Amino acid sequence: LLFARHAAPGPRPRPRGSKDEDADAAASADAMNALPSSATASLGSALRVPTALQRPGGRPSAAAKTAPRGHRRLEITSKWNWDVLGMDLGQTMGTIKRGEGLLNLPPGKVGLFGVRETLEYLADPRKFIKTRVEKYGPVFKTGFFFKPAIVFGSKQAVEEYRAFEAGLPADEALPETFRELHTAYGALRQSGAQHKATRANFGKVLGRAALAHYAPIIARQTRDFVQTQLAEAGTLQPGYECRQHCLKSLFELFIGTVPPEETMMKMYDYNGGLLSLGKMAPEFQSGKKALDDLTEFILKHYRTIKAQDNLNLPEYFFLKQYSEAVDENGELFTDERIATTCVLMVWGAYIEAAASMGHTAWLLMRNPEAAVKVREETRKALTPEVLASGKVSLETMMSMRYTEAVVKETLRVVPQTAGGLRVNPELRQLAGYDIPAGYVLTADPRIPFLDPANYLEPEEFRPERFLPEGAAAGNTVSADTFFPGGMGQHQCPGLNLSTLMTQMFLAYMTCTFDSWEPDLTGEGTPDPSYIQVPIVIIDDQYKMTLTKNWRYDL
Which residues, at least 6 apart from 270, have a Cβ–Cβ distance to it below 8 Å? Predict the structure, then answer.
């Protein structure tokens, strides 16, 4: 029934001025014939679903031009109509197998193993959610990563979910490959006292005091990126260059130095391993080695700093805080745990921050009236001398309320990811429906973000929604309608850091450049294509041309 053709993994995108190489190869496999009995393993070895953010590299071949560079491409065809034969039969068999015949489940389809639903979601998560909300409503059942799931976003369901979310296990909802590479130190795998202790340590390195420490460092990093690299080139590749910028910036923030290029780029291999669908996959093996190499580099670096008694230097603020971190038993973190935590923290922030930067730049280009307001605000708050010094404080950034509203509205219009996944351990009720034990629960932010009951004309880009006048205009912004970083015990702890980095990026961009527009030379396009999984981000090929303001002409 199912045939998957996989383009070879795209290599690393080349820096400016390098030559691309055609390196794509195609292979095909009959995935259904390869399906073992285990649902999770069903496509682990047979499929290579888009493994976003592989090592970036050369130009795709003509056959793969529609695939985002640096990412796998999956094409699916079937000999029969899925809805008429495959999914109806699978749905019936799955319902019988799971013993759900007498329950009042939400509308929707899971199938036998959730294969079709999983693949549709991976292909285009936003379209997947939108079409199912239109068909079934804001609470529906589906299959995520070959497990039955309930996706919801109505106000009633979200309110009820908050009441019991803290007691749900998270680890069981994650794919096996993700669980192993995220390690036992990863917050996404933790619950109870262990998770509470981990979150307490986050507060020391991601709270307001920490952001105040980071702000001048981020300003200097952004100055060098925008007023040197981008100003000299006159162009911006928001997918690739913002990602590289964020990767370097976060390494410096968290370990006090930028690793050698080859070491730093192992983060792409690590990310690919986390997203692989089987431990036999080459992506998983590469990811495992990348984790070991990154951890070893940071471990040696950390121990050298300790031996030299340099932990109190300001550039090692993050490492100093973690040198005093304790677990749920009151024991100090080991050196190995600190090094692993650094890897996880960089991984958890660099793609999200880069995606936010790229999306805001694109939306301001498409909404010039908002760009004018941001430019007026930033140029009033920041003189050329302050920008050149790189000494921009957190208080200054927080005073630019419209710029902050732009970042928030961007997160609403272009949600980066789904809500967190939790496993329901027992039969319970949610929004009037029966939820069987073993089902994955996820509050998807894309549902309330696009609900006109929450946001008037939700497809429109209106930063004013997040200003005081937004409520008077019919917008309902609350914890139940705006949760771009997820909700509950596993909501993203670094969202404020990502917002700060994006605001700083916008400040330097709007002060340095009068405008930017799509680069239509060669194979350039007016609008970008997107990498959809795991984080929605502009692909590496999209480029903008930048028009410099004469006052910032270096």
Answer: 181, 287, 290, 291, 294, 343, 347
Amino acid at 407: V
Task: State both tokens at 299.
Answer: 């471990």
Strand partners, 326: 332
Contacts 24+ apart (CB under 8 A), 333-342: 335/299, 335/302, 335/303, 336/295, 336/299, 337/185, 338/302, 339/295, 339/296, 339/298, 339/299, 339/302, 340/183, 340/185, 340/295, 341/185, 342/254, 342/255, 342/298, 342/302, 342/318
| Residue tagged 């497990």 (tokens) | 147
Helix (H) or strand (E) holding 423: strand 422-423
| Contact present, 222 and 214 (Cβ < 8 Å) | no
Contact 111, 143 (CB under 8 A): yes
3-class SS string, 477-500: CCCCCCCCCCCHHHCCCCHHHHHH
Residue by residue, pLDDT tens for the chain (554 residues) are 222 222 333 334 444 444 443 333 333 333 333 333 333 333 333 333 333 344 454 333 333 333 333 333 333 333 333 344 344 555 666 666 666 778 899 999 887 777 888 888 888 888 999 999 999 999 999 988 778 999 999 999 999 999 998 888 777 777 889 889 999 999 888 888 898 999 999 999 999 999 999 999 999 999 999 999 999 999 999 999 999 999 999 999 999 999 999 999 999 999 999 888 789 999 999 999 999 999 999 999 999 999 999 999 999 999 999 999 999 999 999 999 999 999 999 999 999 999 999 999 999 999 999 999 999 999 999 999 999 999 999 999 999 999 999 999 999 999 888 878 888 999 999 999 999 998 999 999 999 998 999 999 999 999 999 998 888 788 889 888 999 988 887 788 899 999 999 999 999 999 999 999 999 999 889 999 988 877 889 999 999 999 998 765 54
Nearest Cα neighbor of 504 from 261, 242, 257 is: 242
Q: What does DSSP say about strands 440-443 and 147-152: parallel, antiparallel, or unpaired? A: parallel
